[in-house]
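lol ok so funny story. i was supposed to be doing the assay writeup but got distracted and ended up predicting the structure for this chain instead. priorities right. anyway since i did it might as well share w the group, maybe its usefull for someone
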Amino acid sequence: MSRVTAASTDGLIANLYEAIFDPSMLIDFLQELAVRTESRGTHLMVVDTRTETILLHSAGGVVGSSPEELKIICQEYDNTYGGIDYRRAHAASLPVGQWYQCHEVFAPQRIKRERFFREFLQKWDYRYFAGMRMGEGGGLATYIGLNRRAEQGPHDEADMRFLRQLTIHLTRAAKLFYKTRSFRDHFAPSLGSLQYLPSSLFILDQWHRVLFANAAAEQLFLNEQGLSVIEGVLEVTSAPMRKKFSDELEKVITSGVPSAVLLKGPSGERGTGLPCYLLRLPERQESYQLRGDPAVLVLVPRASPNPPEAVALLRTLYALSRREADLAIAIANGATPQDYAREAGLEISTVRSQLKSVFIKTGTHRQTELVRLLSVLPRVKFA
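and the output, tada:
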């Protein structure tokens, strides 16, 4: 390998790792990979294995494959043809990191009968294909594929040797993606303000994937207290408690009503266990934004009361101002708006205006709903 080619390869790999933290670099990586392998199009997808939903689809191509055309190709695939792509189904059956070429696996007679081939591949001149499954974890699978025109023929042995040399970096990048990407995709960085709260706090999606966990929660998972994380998915180690926790999580997602569950092992004493408070999060806030899927905050409060935690949670999760958070906490402790106005030295009209803002931001409509909502943040005296 020449010095120029080696330097180019180093830059390609650097772009791959940078793409884990900076999504814009993924296009650069795929574009350069297309040029290096003379591919009509290179595609990287992240798929939810439970629903077969494509969560991320990025593409690059050689000269002639414009960004506008690639965008249309991705949209057609995601919306119409992804579900009948026999190539992806084959890749899912292979070990992670094993490359294959379509023409070596599928007989031409079979391919020509496939709707996917006739309506999609021929339309975009994606005749030859090389691909693999980069990684899988936490209910997600990552695939990469390279397509060539019919007139080009399949990728030759030099191309495949180069791709196999990249494999270790591709699979490592996928592992890092699962560990770091979910935080960037689901939440703005401001959610990191909850990172060092004393209470354990983590956020789950409807399939129990851990979208965010603060430092205390990470320690909780390591201390064998009935909760662990396996490939990004929360596991409740006790079988009876697993179903109980799953049922409560589903109930909170469906109803939006906060709930609590006491997780305990089979040999645990009566009344003892790990108290978990569950709260469905709104999908859009100024301080963070969910990808669109339901998500539940799970709070395991520390033993001693810590009023500043409640303020931090309210301000981060619901974008409340400090004054609004103080008012909400006072209401949760049984104060009336008049009591709070007198204590804070404010006009009652000002307090009522603040309370209206609290209702809007928290999705509640009256004080009883607000109290019920705040009862899980943490369940200790706020005062």
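Residues 157-186 form the longest helix (30 residues). The chain is about 45% helix and 20% strand.
back to the writeup now i swear
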